[in-house]
Amino acid sequence: MTDDRRSRTDVSAEAYFKMKVAQGLADVVAGRVVTDDEARKRFAKWLDANRRLPDRGARPAGGQV
């Protein structure tokens, strides 16, 4: 896409992406990283804490289907 055809959304998205990459690289330099195994453990713990039962839909009054 040529520069004159880029929307504000495109420009904003690119700026946001570049900012997040820079923040991530700064985290690496500062040692704010975890191993793959630790990330998996943290994610699994988060999933367990935030898991919800599937929505079974609204039931008629009295619980009869």
Descriptors for this entry?
65 residues; mainly alpha; 2 helices; 0% strand
Topology record:
Layout: H1 8-29, H2 36-50
Could you characterize the architecture of this molecule?
- The protein has 65 residues and is mostly helical.
- The protein has a domain at 24-50.
- 57% of the residues lie in helices and 0% in strands.
- It has helices at residues 8-29, 36-50.
Strand-and-helix sequence, N→C? HH
Question: Would you tell me the overall average pLDDT?
Answer: 86
Report the end-to-end length measured between terminal Cα atoms: 55 Å
Uncertain residue ranges: none
* Rg estimate, integer Å: 22 Å
Q: What is the strand tally?
A: 0
* Strand residues, percent: under 5%
Q: What best-fitting shape do the alpha-carbon axes yield?
A: flat
Return the structural class.
Answer: mainly alpha
Contiguous helical run count: 2
Helix content: 55-70%
Main beta-sheet annotation: none
Structure summarized in a few sentences:
By secondary structure, the protein is mostly helical. The protein is 57% helix and 0% strand.
